[in-house]
Design goal:
Elements lengths: L4 E6 L5 H12 L3 E3 H5 L10 H9 L4 E4 L3 H10 L2 E5 L3 H18 L11 H5 L5 H20 L8 E5 L2 H13 L1
Helix pairs in contact: 1-8, 3-4, 5-7
Length: 176
């Protein structure tokens, strides 16, 4: 299996960044988190997002995590493998609530110094828990169809339906 350029996708809070970081470490390659390229101060999109993704995608090796449809074609066309974290809604939603609560309580700084707050996480329809509710089923419907598109047919699709499968995948990659 060619793992030169891997994209990790899945619903928010499925563990994309954690898996991508670990995979990049195993493969001794760069890890790129799309959220860190996208978000600027005050949760505003960065105007150079697409250009930055184009530059990174041209590199010969990388592990990228994220689901931004605006750059999907750029990344997926260059990927050699697509890892899909296809976890249950209950698992992902409970992780979203735990992660959001932790970030609010600890005032954890995120991309460009942004923070999640009770207001933007729970009372804004774009808050992570609400985002998971809106996107989990859609991703489960859309991803299998997208994987069938001829422009992505060159990429190996690795569907992982539970954390134990993700661990087994990482162990297998380590053994290569």
């Amino acid at each position: 299996m060619n793992l030169a350029r891997v994209v990790v996708v899945g619903t928010s809070c499925s563990g994309k960044t954690t898996l991508a970081r670990r995979l990049a470490r195993i493969l001794t390659t760069e890890h790129v988190e799309l959220d860190s390229l996208y978000w600027g101060p005050e949760w505003t999109p960065r105007p150079d997002f697409i250009q930055n993704v184009l530059t990174i995608a041209q590199q010969s090796r990388w592990v990228i995590d994220g689901n931004y449809s605006a750059v999907r074609d750029i990344i997926w066309r260059r990927s050699s493998a697509i890892v899909w974290l296809d976890y249950s809604f209950a698992r992902v939603f409970s992780q979203a609530l735990r992660r959001t609560a932790r970030r609010i309580i600890t005032r954890e700084r995120l991309y460009a110094g942004n923070r999640e707050t009770v207001r933007n996480a729970l009372f804004d329809t774009d808050g992570i828990p609400w985002w998971v509710i809106r996107t989990h089923g859609k991703r489960r419907r859309d991803f299998p169809e997208l994987f069938k598109c001829p422009e992505y047919g060159h990429a190996a699709v690795i569907q992982l339906d539970r954390p134990a499968a993700a661990e087994a995948f990482l162990v297998a990659v380590s053994a290569l």
